């Protein structure tokens, strides 16, 4: 038997223990928040027909090189999804009657055969929210608002969202007399600001023979940029859209989490309006998105405007699992003597009352049980002995303080209240 | 663009709308229940090294014929998981220090290239809970108890669990003088009882030249069987284990959901003790499981006893989505006039208070908005007009009764209370 692999596939990983508990919590928070916003959970298969994944012009050229492909037993050519947007476009094309706006939540694993590195895996979990069918800046603001709620609830204290607008960047590029055919190249260089710094971008622009004037605007605020564009009679579309988005967010008192940043362009060519990047702290990007009004059509779907935001759930998991401990169990019941059935009854009542509860299933002695409880960071232990049982009592030990107390067993109300207080539950 | 597939891969499906909402609810209930029982969420990759999936003797011979296989770009031979137990065995082999009992929850998609048919898909979602490391009947009772909680919370009114024990069946087979080498064949015939009826099984046994005496025990209760086995001095291991399991379940007042059924054997060869099948109503199987004390070793893992139960989440989804409607949104805000920012603020407050809330993102007129609200079964509408706003009010319409009421907008308490009452929330 020793010849069978005990490790997961290279570049992929098993998620266990605290990491798995934290990941589940992250997924729950994203899911519940998205549902409060009216996003609809949907599920597309991990496998897609290969033609769906290989569509040209959708900005997926890099990821297409990293595809996992296969044939099924009938020789159908298939591939594993590397993102959700291609599948979303297919669903929209195949279901033209879906009511608009179509607000979708796609959460699941995607696959890319790239070089494994820290915080990157060949199977990773993405959570995308998308609003399809609306051109309103309200939709952009909804996505940003949701991202703020999620980061807040996840416990990131210094979270913020950087936003800009492609149309604003384009107007600035035009203002700096960069010819239209060099606009994309110019943006690609700007996108490297975080990586190679201002000097690096400057050198790159110079080597591409593109004016570096644009760099002088990268620290400007929105009002200054509006003035410059107005003066030069350039398009104000991007500025005005951003003003609306920020106005809406201010109405929800969330503008404090948002930083306008004209240097933000985001790598992908397909963005047409707002672009945004979510930070869980200085330079810790945990997701991003933007408006992509032509992408769904490019991917084979109908012509529908869309805006969306995507969370890197594995990255979030790795970041948070280092800092947060989710206990597997709140209350552990140790039966002492022949009281298994009574302990089983008690553990049932605890669960019914909403506690995460377990009992010894290994017939361990007291010290082994306590050692296991300690290793697993379980906060409360109930000792259920024959004597206590005869007196309608159970002994509760708080593992942190060592404090012990005998509590009435039935009716269950007192025990429930005592445990809730100990656990800091309402 | 019309050449790109708009349909999912053959045999697989997109899950959208009410079906997706119901599926999410099912997954949430299974997950939350399992966590209350102290099961640990874990995640294994969809892809496994092919040798892991092709292990012999694990009872997966049929599923192995239905594998999706592929090579990654380095030529590694991989396959898509067709169940979770193989991966669980690999994880246990690769992580010998995992504390025991190891109580795992595996929920996700698995893949089998079989013939698509109603309620069966080539990608389907399974939810497995397993307790590894304990031989105690308490562990078997835990799995059954959890299955009862899940079916109750899902709203199945006539749910019950059929249970038996392989050791009891073996003892009965021996009692009927079926030679040991025919025991498996005998069990395979018994397993077809639901499909081909008593007469069918009788004929099949006769054609295999196996005594049909066993059939006379299939309606017996546990006490009768105990008597017969005692009289013949046959092993009582199975009977005694079942008695314990049922005694524990009685302590939780759950025995009423359990039916001992000596005809239950379940198809798979690897069960060694308790077997169980979950029914959501007469003849509607929604999951099952049992004790498999040797399987993990057969699959390449360490020698560890285990018991588990598995839910067919797609089957549950198809059954429940027909009967249950989960509304996507509880409250829909329609801004009337230039009050988008105020509406955006209001919808933010609603979500903060826990309501699933949306506002118009399409600048639709009143009648189109109401038509959309109707189609989507949204129960409450808030009309936010400039006049109402000036008077610190909002108009609430209950879509079912048509009743309308002006409610104070700020402070938010009154509106929150009114909406909660209307929605039947506490």
Explain this structure to me?
Two copies of one chain form a homodimer. Helices cover 39% and strands 20% of the residues of chain A. The first copy, chain A, is built from 16 helices and 16 strands. The mean pLDDT of chain A is 94. In chain A, the strands form three sheets. The first copy, chain A, has an eight-stranded mixed sheet with strand order 1-5-6-11-10-9-7-8. The two termini of chain A are 51 Å apart. Chain A has two domains: 305 residues, Bira Bifunctional Protein, Domain 2 (BirA Bifunctional Protein, domain 2), CATH 3.30.930; 92 residues, Rossmann fold, CATH 3.40.50. Chain A is of the alpha+beta class and 426 residues long.
Topology:
Two copies of one chain form a homodimer.
Chain A: H1 17-36, E1 40-41, E2 47-49, H2 50-53, H3 61-64, E3 69-71, E4 77-80, H4 85-94, E5 102-111, E6 123-132, H5 137-154, E7 160-165, H6 166-175, H7 183-190, H8 193-207, H9 222-231, H10 237-251, E8 258-260, E9 274-279, E10 285-291, H11 295-298, E11 306-312, H12 313-321, E12 331-336, H13 340-352, E13 357-359, H14 366-375, E14 380-385, H15 386-390, E15 393-398, E16 404-408, H16 413-422
Parallel strand pairs in A: 1-5, 7-8, 12-13, 12-14
Antiparallel strand pairs in A: 2-4, 3-4, 5-6, 6-11, 7-9, 9-10, 10-11, 14-15, 15-16
Helix pairs in contact in A: 1-5, 1-12, 5-10
EC number (chains A, B): 6.1.1.21
Protein name (chains A, B): Histidine--tRNA ligase
InterPro entries (chains A, B): aa-tRNA-synth_II (IPR006195), aa-tRNA-synth_II/BPL/LPL (IPR045864), Anticodon-bd (IPR004154), Anticodon-bd_dom_sf (IPR036621), His-tRNA-ligase (IPR015807), HisRS-like_core (IPR041715), HisRS/HisZ (IPR004516), HisRS_anticodon (IPR033656)
């Amino acid at each position: 038997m020793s010849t069978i692999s005990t490790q997961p596939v290279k570049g992929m990983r098993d998620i266990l223990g605290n990491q798995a508990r934290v990941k589940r919590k992250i997924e729950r928070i994203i899911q519940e928040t998205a549902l409060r916003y009216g996003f609809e959970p949907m599920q597309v298969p991990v496998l897609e027909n290969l033609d769906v994944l290989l569509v040209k012009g959708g900005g997926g050229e890099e990821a297409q090189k990293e595809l996992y492909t296969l044939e099924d037993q009938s020789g159908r050519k298939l591939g594993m999804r590397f993102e959700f947007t291609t599948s979303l476009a297919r669903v929209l094309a195949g279901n033209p009657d879906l009511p608009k706006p179509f607000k979708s939540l796609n959460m699941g694993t995607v696959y890319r055969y790239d070089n494994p590195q820290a915080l990157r895996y060949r199977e990773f979990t993405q959570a995308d929210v998308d609003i399809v069918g609306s051109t309103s800046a309200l939709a952009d603001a909804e996505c940003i608002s949701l991202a703020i709620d999620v980061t807040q609830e996840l416990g990131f204290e210094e979270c913020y969202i950087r936003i800009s607008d492609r149309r604003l960047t384009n107007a600035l590029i035009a203002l700096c007399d960069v010819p239209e055919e060099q606009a994309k190249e110019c943006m690609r260089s700007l996108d490297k600001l975080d990586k190679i710094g201002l000097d690096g971008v400057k050198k790159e622009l110079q080597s591409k023979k593109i004016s570096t004037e644009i760099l002088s605007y990268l620290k400007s605020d929105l009002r200054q940029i509006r003035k410059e564009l107005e003066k030069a009679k350039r398009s104000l579309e991007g500025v005005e859209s951003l003003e609306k988005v920020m106005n809406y967010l201010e109405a929800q008192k969330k503008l404090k989490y948002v930083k306008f940043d004209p240097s933000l362009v985001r790598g992908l060519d397909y963005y047409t309006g707002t672009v945004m990047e979510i930070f869980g702290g200085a330079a810790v990007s945990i997701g991003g998105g933007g408006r992509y009004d032509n992408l769904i059509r490019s991917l084979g779907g109908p012509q529908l405007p869309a805006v969306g935001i995507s969370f890197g759930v594995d990255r979030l998991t790795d970041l948070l699992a280092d800092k947060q401990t989710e206990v597997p169990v709140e209350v552990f019941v140790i039966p002492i003597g022949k009281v298994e059935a009574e302990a089983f009854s008690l553990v049932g009542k605890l669960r019914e009352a909403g506690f995460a509860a377990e009992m010894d299933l290994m017939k361990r002695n007291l010290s082994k049980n306590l050692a296991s409880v300690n290793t697993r960071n379980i906060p409360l232990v109930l000792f259920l002995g024959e004597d206590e049982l005869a007196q309608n009592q159970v002994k509760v030990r708080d593992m942190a303080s060592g404090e012990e107390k005998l509590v009435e067993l039935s009716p269950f109300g007192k025990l429930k209240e005592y445990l809730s207080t100990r656990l800091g539950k309402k």
